[in-house]
Specification:
By secondary structure, this protein is α/β, with parallel strands linked by helices. The protein is built from 10 helices and 10 strands.
């Protein structure tokens, strides 16, 4: 295995925080000028908005008002009684409608990229452009009997739906096991911004275990690719050059065959699933160049 890649050399906490009721309370954070053109960031599953602390400031320094949000059951957003893909889509629609001056460009990582593409296909009036960072289809799991899904939900209710507590080092170590390409310093940082501490100093991630239903995405690879092909806005598909088991993404060849008319693909040689963390400058430069072209085309 290769040595872990460095964490972003510079991180910056959000400049502003606010919430919306959709009707669930959703927490939003912002970087950059309050009067700038909005740019929406959507994090992946099991993550939170502060994962963008090394990436969002680069976009904000280019003049964008960068808005990210914690998905339901993640970070500082409220937990829900039940979770599902339709609810996630409604939350993103609510965020897009709450931020003035749409339609908006959206950058989504992993699951966030799929959410952005689905909303762009269904509500094109809300989305100006999409940058998908290794997030193009919904991960498909083998069919599971309804009673298995119901039993898992009951188990989570009986357990109080609390994440397992541990020391900061234990949480960081567990996260790195799933993200071996990222160095320990980044995991330590995520614990600081994404985990709560109890009275005894133990930490637990601010993520509801019930936010991961089984199966999370019962859509075939073919259906996901066909849906992506229907997107009408400009799309920059940033495909990881290093395949990782955590990603479960289609090949570059399949993506090229299903790009929408205004889509283009960039393979990020040397970067893995968390490309925006591994090399935020490179990913931000690609995104900013693409968005500049989108805005220029809109003015012509």
């Amino acid at each position: 295995m290769t040595d872990p890649v460095p964490a972003p050399p510079v991180t910056r906490a959000p400049a502003r925080r606010w919430t919306i009721a959709n009707p669930l309370e959703i927490a939003l954070v912002e970087w950059g000028p309050a009067n700038g053109t909005p740019l929406i960031l959507v994090h992946g599953g099991g993550d939170f908005a502060r994962n963008f602390d090394g990436f969002a400031p680069l976009l904000a320094d280019a003049g964008w008002r960068v808005v990210a949000w914690d998905q339901r059951g993640h970070g500082d957003s409220a937990r829900a009684e039940l979770y599902g893909w339709s609810a996630e889509l409604r939350d993103l629609v609510g965020v897009l409608q709450a931020v003035s001056g749409g339609p908006h460009p959206v950058i989504g990582h992993s699951k966030g990229g799929v959410l952005a593409l689905d909303v762009a296909a269904a509500r094109p009036e809300l989305v100006r452009a999409v940058v998908a960072i290794d997030g193009f289809i919904r991960r498909v799991h083998p069919p599971r009997p309804p009673e298995e899904t119901a039993e898992r939900w009951l188990d989570l209710q009986r357990a109080g739906r609390t994440t397992r507590a541990g020391t900061a080092a234990e949480l960081a170590h567990g996260r790195q096991a799933a993200n071996p390409r990222l160095e320990p310093a980044w995991m330590d940082y995520l614990v600081e911004v994404g985990a709560d501490a109890d009275a005894d100093g133990h930490r637990s991630w601010k993520i509801d275990p019930a936010a991961f239903p089984l199966p999370p995405h019962a859509v075939s690879l073919e259906a996901g690719l066909q849906r992506m092909a229907t997107v009408r806005c400009a799309l920059l598909a940033l495909k990881a050059g290093v395949e990782e088991a955590i990603a479960g993404q289609p090949s570059a060849e399949l993506l090229r065959d299903h790009l929408p008319p205004l889509g283009r693909l960039e393979v990020l040689d040397g970067l893995g699933h968390f490309a925006h963390v591994e090399d935020p400058q490179r990913v931000a430069a690609l995104a900013l160049s693409f968005l500049a072209d989108v805005l220029a085309d809109a003015r012509d």
